[in-house]
Known about the structure:
The chain is α+β, with helices and mostly antiparallel strands. It has 7 helices and 13 strands. The strands form 3 sheets. The chain has a 5-stranded mixed beta barrel. Strand 3 (155-157) and strand 4 form a beta hairpin. The longest helix is centred in the first third of the chain and has 19 residues, at 2-20. The termini are far apart.
Amino acid sequence: MKVIWTIVALLVLGGLIVLFQPPAQERPDRSVDEAFEAKMRETVAEATGRAPAAPEGPKPVPNAPTAAADTQRPVTPIAGIDPVSAPTSPDPATSPLPRDPAAAAAPAAVAKAPAAKDAPSAEPAKPDPAAVAAGQRFEPEIPPIAHAEILPSTFIKLADGSISADDAWTIRGDGSAESPYEVSWEFLASAQDTYTPRLAENKIPARIAFLSGKRVRISGYLAFPLVATTSGECLLMLNQWDGCCIGIPPTPYDAIEVKLSTEIKGWKKHTFNFGAIEGTFTVEPYLIENWLVGLYMMKDATLDREL
């Protein structure tokens, strides 16, 4: 009878310990529990006169998948994704992609590049220093510009007939009706380096003032009046702008106010129009309380691309 009560007391004591011990994941050390279980087995064995039982191994988890089952388990497709068309790692042996990354990127770059006829006039490459050295320096007549001081420039006539200005810019043509001067938007925008009236900077380079009163041709994006069906005026710009709210609004340095020789019609509103304008170019600063509103104008102009 004493043995039975001893066993009952031990079982009750063990149950209380199991009941109040922290969860397994919070125990700092499992060796204490294992030592206690071994001590209980020895105590029970002494009371019953039997050999202590061997510790039980970990119990199998019900419905636990085996390694073999995991390897054979079918993959359930995710909703909205076609497993057949899902991207996979390319096989180097069968992949049609070119081995040269530059060759792979070349078609995409070509596709994004605009056609030459629809690209604003850009600055050509600098002339060879030897060509500049062999050219002939000259001093053209520079017309005065209202509200501005003329900043001297260096002009060199090259063998091909173009003009090198300040050893950095190229002016093509001869300024005649048959071969008007052709300049880039970068060339015209360079005026902002020295001409910002609101900052008391009022010097316009002679290379730009030189064009005033000459025939000039330049390509760019066009904006027409939004409420008119016909117009004799437009705005020629470096950047795309629909005249209202789409695109990049122009600045005085990258836009030209154009007065056409004849009115035109038929342009599409709120779209990007492109063309080349040729006419008499003038540098006419338009200031409102020292804020520059406009700088370039073109009169008696023609548009060589039908809209």
